[in-house]
Amino acid sequence: MDIDSFLLNAHAFEGILIEKYQTKLPLFFLLDGNALEFKIVNGKRRVIRFFGPNQFIFRLNSAHEIEILNRSGIITLPYGKVIKLFRKHPEIVEIHRKVKRDYLRKKELFETERRKKNTIERYFDLMERQPWVFRIAEPADIASYLNISLTQYERMTEVN
């Protein structure tokens, strides 16, 4: 598979991209637009993280779902083609492992830093790293990500 045929797999999408417990997932690449990963805890939506343009979309827990927040260009490489690509080009397996290791390392570092920070620090961290979230995501999703109630978030962001 060459780059041109890979790009031909691009399509516009909006809504739930990956449902919980779905297996044998394709490889997704977000060309433009935005997405979030969430899980349902005690009947409430708990936002785990946000994705921006030019990012691979990984779901590491089968109980999580991925939602595309706005009409987005997505490249989809079906699961079967990923497996064929790995078999045909063993060197890609090592690249995949490295990308996944790097991703997991960054995620663990981010989670460790996030646990050490208070709500205000997490808010400013999100504002610095992913400012688009405040323009696109629902306030309830941002509050969930910050692990505070919507009322607390609204008070925190009130302009006096």
Give structural attributes:
six-stranded antiparallel β-sheet, 6 strands, alpha+beta, 28% strand, Jelly Rolls, single chain, 160 residues
Structural description of this entry:
Helix content is 46%, strand content 28%. The chain is globular and about 55 Å long. The chain has one domain: Jelly Rolls, CATH 2.60.120.10. The mean pLDDT is 81. It has helices at residues 3-7, 79-88, 90-116, 119-129, 133-136, 139-146, 150-157; strands at 10-18, 27-30, 35-41, 44-51, 55-57, 65-77. The chain has 160 residues and is an alpha+beta fold. It has seven helices and six strands, in the order H-E-E-E-E-E-E-H-H-H-H-H-H.
Task: Indicate the topology.
Elements: H1 3-7, E1 10-18, E2 27-30, E3 35-41, E4 44-51, E5 55-57, E6 65-77, H2 79-88, H3 90-116, H4 119-129, H5 133-136, H6 139-146, H7 150-157
Antiparallel strand pairs: 1-6, 2-5, 2-6, 3-4, 3-6
